[in-house]
Amino acid sequence: MKLFKFIVILLILLSSVKDYAQHRIVLKAEVDLETKIIAAEQELDYYNDSDVPLNAIVLNDWNNAYSAKDTPLARRFSDEFTRSFHLANDEERGNTNILSIIGPEYTSLHYTRPPEHPDLVLVTLQNPVMPHQRIRLKITYLIKIPSDRFTRYGYNSNGEMNLKDWFLMPARFQDQTFTTYSNENLDDAANAASDYTLLLTVPKNKEITSDLNQIRTEEKAEKTIYTFEGKNRHNFSLVISPFINYSSYKNTITEVVTDIKSNRVTEIQKAILIDKIVLFVNDNVGGFPHEKITVSQLDYDRDPFYGLNQLPAFLAPFSDDFLYEIKFLKTYTNNFLKSSLQLDPRKENWIYDGLQMYLIIKYIEENHPDMKMMGNISKFKLLKSFYLTNIEFNGQFNYLYLLMARKNLDQPIGDAKTTFIKFNEQIAGKYKAGLSFNYLDQFLGDATLTIAITDFYSLNKKQQTTEYDFETILKSRTDKNIDWFFNTLVHSRELIDYRFGNVVRSKDSLTVTVENNQKATVPISLYGFKNGKIVFKEWLENIKTDSTFTIPRNGADKLALNYTDEVPEYNQRNNWKSLKGFFVPNRPIKFNLMKDLEHPYYNQIFYVPDFEYNLYDGLALGMRLHNKSLLDKPFSYDVTPIFSFKTQSLIGSASVAYNQQIRDSRLYNIRYGMSSSYYHYAPDAAYLKLTPSVTFRFREENLRNNKKRFIGLRYVMVDREKSIFTMDKNNENYSVLDIRYGSTKTEVTNHFSFLTDVQVSNAFGKFSGQLEYRHLFDNNRQVNLRFYGGTFLYRKTDSDFFSFATDRPTDYLFDYNYYGRSESSGLFSQQLIIAEGGFKSKLDIPYANQWITTVNGSFNIWNWIELYGDAGMVKNKYSDPKFIYDSGIRLNLVTDYFELYFPVYSSNGWEIAQPNYNEKIRFIVTISPGTLLNLFTRKWL
């Protein structure tokens, strides 16, 4: 068996002994720093190393992705709510202007750009290139370099150019076809390996930095010509700068050129840390195949180590040398792997991510085993009780993966990189990939994984590789079944969650039942403890539903599954089993101030001092009690009793909810809830609201699709005290059945939402619908449109309390965050909530008790200054339909969060010329932290 495995490995490693990079590129590039244009003359010797004739050649032209607002790159920006590219002028965007492509015998070749891939060039050949034959193309083109404010690549205001994927490169050819990927700002260009010669002409006195080898320099008039060479490369970096940024560090393995910033780390310290990291990667992967590697601050800024840069600098949680070490480690491992492995960088990106994060995890274990996730903050006495400050540095990888898994937003790490939502692409997916490699390493033991990695790395020096090559090498190195690694961890969303069932104790042995709460069948580690120390560890396998194992007790008084987090498990709160007796809890209760990470050893109750304000309750202080940690839980509760000093009474709110996450369905979440609230709605009266509800949430199979839908059912019961200050004197108590359907799809350039609402009660029945549309045009003008219509199905009351409102709904369901809901004059009456009619002016017809139709629109005239207009028809009983309208100026500072409306002309006449104009100004202000959080997280999710 061992001989067979050895032969398999030997055949793989020797399957290609040729010099793999058969394509050759000679690129003459003259840079004009004023116009940001590079004039290029390129000679491409293309070698057909496949077994099929080629009638065309595909070239990657990723610089042309910046040429328009409808490219795949532009759509990616829009999906992730990045406005800078769409709002940029033509001078800031880049493009490639191909002047000619000349083939053999000076024939001009036809080329096209595929409609869906404007950043690819398809060159049609007059005669096919036969297998193992060459063709030489001569290409002349102009490259307009984009601003770096979109992706950090391009030119900046300091006179620098940071260039990557800026010239024409042959696309990867595999499985008898070219790989046709567009630039989506993911650093995953599928370029074929080539030998490069670059003749770069720049103005004098410019610093040039590249990971190519500099051969010579020639001064000519006011220009300098640099000659660089590189062998067997997929790409290279190039920086043109008016000043020196980079430092060079050489060791026995390679030359490192870096500008990673750290003002407080000496050159000697940097050299020592760089040498240690280079040697570490060399020992665990292999030698770098090129003479030089660039590790830039730009590379780090594009893919930072999340957590290090989220803490305030004044806390100084990490030492300067540790920060430099981690920054360099993360960037070096990324650039090392991207320059060395010859995988498909989009479809097989999980191997790049997994190896990078696995190396980081292993490096921390070996060099900083006592480092905490929050660094030196863990030493603060006031913070020692928080689990967040005590968790190991490597513990953050599992928690950031779980952040998405608990929201049912995790994705298979083996999927194509373009399918990931941003948080998964940059954080959660990477971390799960690293955890998966570490999990496999712990399970296999004996450095099996490290040996397989080095074998795979050696193969990449000789040929293009695939995931199958990695799997073959890995399985040849072990007798254990590791199909679960590829089938479950890599190519599925199946969750891992084991818990203890029945445990039968004896003095010398334990009969333990372990239950599988999810679909994944993977190995799980079992630990035994005595007086807090580990006395045994076992790997349990093949637990599909539940399995029973008999093991020696070794004096254990407690059991734990997955104690050291080697398994990326969905729920670790059910991993403990006490053996001390029936009345000793597995997880005792612990009270925590504010919020914390979920602690697997305790049942946490969080308490938070709270204050609220509205006009009638005044300032109210109290305490919020809840169980919501930084990770979502299926069951949550939230109780907030607060004391109103103005009314000298206890007010507040309470809620309980259960989230049912559905993994493999467009119906991905069902939320069952019960909520209640008690506040004052008028100076002399309070209300009690009780609402049982159920909400069904739907999404598209493609999680990057921003379209979401929901169906909501709730029964709102309101008990109101009588008040002499309100318009409604008859309907103090009521109940309403409310059924809603909503659909929304939003991005930078387009927003569309639709909502229907049916309400049924003893006093009335009504139906309404609302449609919102927002579009950002190519000229950076934006139009906002909202259509609303509603009608009563029946009505058994004479009060307008339940009527449709034109400008200020009565909010009888107490849904809106009014600061003074019963006010008819004064500042609080000017608060605007866009609902029902959506008018901004206070008109003579404030309500409609039969039907209403309105349209609200706005159009920006300069940045956040807009013109708005509203128009509609309202119908009241015993009167004809009335047409109403208003118009004015909208300061749209932050849409839906901070807006001001200045009425100009309406059905009331010229409002701007009328007395007390300041009382007509309307405002939208959102101060709720939970609501504001959505503003900052939407681009990630």
In short:
The chain has an 18-stranded mixed sheet that branches.
Textual characterization of the structure:
- The chain is globular.
- The protein is an alpha+beta fold.
- A hairpin with a 3-residue loop joins strand 44 (882-894) and strand 45.
- Helix 4 (267-284) crosses helix 6 (320-340), helix 6 runs antiparallel to helix 7 and helix 9 (395-405) packs across helix 10.
- The strands form 9 sheets. The protein has an 18-stranded mixed beta sheet that branches. A 7-stranded mixed beta sheet has the order 4-7-2-1-13-16-15, with no helix packed on it.
- It is built from 14 helices and 47 strands.
Characteristics:
single chain; 941 residues; alpha+beta; 18-stranded mixed sheet; globular
List strands and helices in order, with pairings:
Blueprint: H1 2-13, E1 23-32, E2 37-47, E3 54-60, H2 72-79, H3 84-87, E4 95-102, E5 110-112, E6 120-129, E7 134-144, E8 154-155, E9 161-163, E10 169-170, E11 173-174, E12 177-178, E13 194-203, E14 207-210, E15 213-220, E16 223-233, E17 238-241, E18 247-250, E19 255-258, H4 267-284, E20 292-295, H5 297-302, H6 320-340, H7 349-367, H8 387-390, H9 395-405, H10 422-444, H11 448-460, H12 467-476, H13 483-490, E21 498-505, E22 509-516, E23 524-530, E24 533-540, E25 546-552, E26 558-561, E27 576-578, E28 589-593, E29 603-614, E30 618-626, E31 635-644, E32 649-661, E33 667-682, E34 685-699, E35 708-720, E36 733-746, E37 750-760, E38 764-776, E39 782-795, E40 804-805, E41 847-848, E42 851-862, E43 865-875, E44 882-894, E45 898-906, E46 909-910, E47 922-925, H14 929-937
Parallel strand pairs: 1-13, 19-20, 28-29
Antiparallel strand pairs: 1-2, 2-7, 3-6, 3-10, 4-7, 5-6, 8-9, 9-17, 11-12, 13-16, 14-17, 15-16, 18-19, 21-22, 22-25, 23-24, 23-26, 26-27, 29-30, 30-31, 31-32, 32-33, 33-34, 34-35, 35-36, 36-37, 37-38, 38-39, 39-42, 40-41, 42-43, 43-44, 44-45, 45-46, 45-47
Helix pairs in contact: 1-12, 4-6, 6-7, 7-10, 9-10, 11-12
